[in-house]
Specification:
This protein has about 260 residues and is α/β, with parallel strands linked by helices. The protein folds into two domains: about 190 residues, 2-enoyl-CoA Hydratase, Chain A, domain 1 (Alpha-Beta Complex), CATH 3.90.226.10; about 50 residues, no CATH class. It contains ten helices and ten strands. The longest helix is centred in the N-terminal third of the chain and has 19 residues. The two termini are about 25 Å apart. It binds coenzyme A. The site of coenzyme A has 16 residues, from β6.
Length: about 260
């Protein structure tokens, strides 16, 4: 797949994706959003891709938000269309059946924080900063930020960030549970890759059912416990479940096939 705003490299099943507009701190313009939409389809449909890391180009920015220059002159209904489209793209990342993690290497603001939150989990470099500064522009987040921030850090902390438009640093993001690890910038991709290597060595269908069951917690149209029951049951129909349990009893390492 070719992209105009993303750099990609695939190694040992892990696709590293770099949002590449460093002169604009990787802000999400229409081209980046179109590329992210294509990306989620590529991850989903390419057997050689087992997992992905999303990061930003340069040492300063992960993604500094939606591209503010594209907001000028939009009507209310055009704003709604933009939010609906952005939400759909971020939903496709969140619901990807393969693990997608954010390696946050700098500013993750507005749409950048929303992109990171749509990923399955986040790792930050020490210089990373997070925030939803939309109120400074007379706006609110539109790509799921009001929802996922509450889910991840709780309503009180989320509303403080949303209403002050302020930023938190990486240690605070760690304390809030917004990120799982904070590491020196030069170790960010190594840490992300190591975590994904551990994950992709497990049974892929079980991994995808972890994702869909955890996502069901926040889906008002579904009962997450019922989703878990169905997903648990489905595992019994897989070669990998038979292999995993047999290997345990035979005291050997399982050889998963993804079937
Ligand atoms: N949309 C469009 N352009 C953006 C951008 C965004 N969200 N964020 C940064 N840029 C651009 C700047 O306009 C600047 O471009 P220029 O060199 O052509 O003038 C370039 O990226 C570098 O940013 P700059 O502001 O000069 O860097 P800084 O270190 O002084 O400040 C930030 C960094 C992140 C604090 C600042 O860029 C900022 O506040 N960005 C907007 C964040 C935001 O409100 N995001 C939510 C949008 S809904």
């Amino acid at each position: 797949m070719t992209y105009t705003t993303l750099l990609t490299s695939l190694e040992n099943g892990i696709l590293t994706v770099t949002v590449n507009r460093p002169d604009k701190l990787n802000a999400l313009n229409r081209d980046v959003m179109t590329d992210l939409e294509k990306l989620s389809k590529e991850i989903e449909t390419t057997p050689d891709i087992k997992a992905a890391i999303i990061t930003g180009s340069g040492q300063k920015g992960f993604v500094a938000g939606a591209d503010i220059s594209e907001f000028i002159g939009l009507s209310s209904s055009e704003g709604m269309d933009l939010a609906r489209k952005g939400q759909a793209i971020f939903f496709s990342i969140e619901n990807c059946s393969k693990p997608v993690i954010a390696a946050v290497n700098g500013f993750a603001l507005g749409g950048g924080c929303e992109l990171a939150m749509a990923c399955h989990f986040r790792i930050a470099s020490e210089n990373a900063k997070f925030g939803q500064p939309e109120v400074n522009l007379g706006l609110i987040p539109g790509y799921g930020g009001t929802q996922r921030l509450v889910q991840l850090i709780g309503k009180g902390r989320a509303l403080e960030l949303l209403m002050t438009g302020g930023m938190i640093d990486a240690p605070t993001a760690l304390q809030y549970g917004l990120v799982n690890y904070v590491v020196p910038q030069e170790e960010l991709l190594t840490k992300a890759t190591a975590l994904l290597q551990t994950i992709i060595a497990k049974a892929p269908l079980a991994i995808s059912r972890c994702i869909s069951s955890a996502n069901a917690v926040f889906d008002n149209n579904r009962n997450g416990y019922e989703v878990e029951i169905a997903a648990f049951g489905d595992c019994f129909d897989t070669d990998d479940m038979r292999e995993g349990t047999t290997a345990f009893l035979e005291k050997r390492k399982p050889a998963f096939t993804g079937k």
